[in-house]
Amino acid sequence: MTTAERQRNAAQLLRPQLPAELTDKRAGCPFDPATGLTELSGRGGIHRVEHNGDSVWLVTGHDEARAVLAAPQMSSDRINSPRAKALISPELHAEMFPPERRAGSFIFMDAPEHTRFRRLLTGQFTVRRMRDLTPRVHEIVTGCLDAMVEKGPPADLVHDFALPVPSLVICELLGVDYGDRDEFQRRTSKLLSLTTTVDEQIENATEMRRFMRELVEEKQRDPGDDLLSGLVRDTDLTTDELVGIANLLLIAGHETTANMLALGTFALLEHPAELEKLRADPGLVENAVEELLRYLSIISAGVSRHAREDVEIGGVTVRAGETVVVSVPAVNRDERQYDDPHALLLDRPRGHHVAFGHGIHQCLGQQLARVEMAVGFTELLRRLPSLQLAVPAHEVPLRTDMSIYGVHRLPVTW
What we know:
Layout: H1 3-14, H2 35-41, E1 46-51, E2 54-59, H3 62-70, E3 74-75, H4 82-87, H5 90-96, H6 99-102, H7 113-122, H8 127-132, H9 134-151, E4 155-156, H10 157-162, H11 164-174, H12 181-192, H13 198-221, H14 227-234, H15 239-269, H16 272-280, H17 285-296, E5 303-307, E6 311-313, E7 316-318, E8 323-326, H18 328-331, H19 366-383, E9 388-389, E10 411-413
Parallel strand pairs: 2-8
Antiparallel strand pairs: 1-2, 3-5, 4-10, 5-8, 6-7, 9-10
Helix pairs in contact: 9-11, 9-19, 11-15, 12-13, 13-15, 15-19, 17-19
């Protein structure tokens, strides 16, 4: 296998490739799905899509997406899927997914293995516990805003606010030294990049495991009162499993919320009538968070499953071994589910969006993310009532080269 084939096949395994008309943003439309994706969605809820010799089922309908994500016949184990065996050699599979890397990676597991890890973690992420964290989240948000205001405009909202807020929160929750943030943020960025080579992905994954193993071993020697110490003290998880879980929580805990805070602020600034609704009624913030989650759908690459057996979805039969990709941006704009789905309406009645997934793999940290966004948007708009972009909207650099969508920078002034 040539280097190019090795890279292409690994990329297809990690992110099934779709035609450009279903993925590329239109110029001047940073918040909307690709035009082709919207047109395809209007023709039904599930579609066979072929591109460069690859064939997948693409789900664009809300009901079909929930059916896929809840169906026990659909597997999340892309590491050992028929697709993995067809695309990459046993040697490359061993390089990409050594046993120590697979340990604890419960988002790529099915029941009952997934159930074991999920049960151990569910008690750590209850709604009550996340709401109890609100005062501390408020302190962190206020501290970041204080520093930003003291430095004065202009500022990069990503660097000065959107990224440090969830990073500080997840570091405290896990017991990670915030002084190490530069390393794990840099490694995470490379892992989520769509342009890194498979060899770079393997290297970064190895370094992330090394970083987290040192922390886990420290907690094993001297546990504290953080979440990771609790898992060390109260469970029978192996060191490799603890490392895998901690890595997942660390990466998911700062990247997704950071991009929602930044992209959400960009969207609000570009929709002044909706922004004014929130300024006039701060009590609208929780509803606004749900609408921004629906409208923006930062998991733009989609969520993949493969069928373990034949299953009917939306009137079509998905055969055993076939891959299904749930297009979250299309699903959250399904006109059969939402009136005027392409409009940002902060007072829209709450619906059942799939920004956090659905079924047994629904995001564990969703309540924490909601708290961080509600506090973050509220305090940002209260402290900076004249907040505005410092550059024209078309100059804001978009994260179209990353598996989690957002903005690389958001220059603002006030």
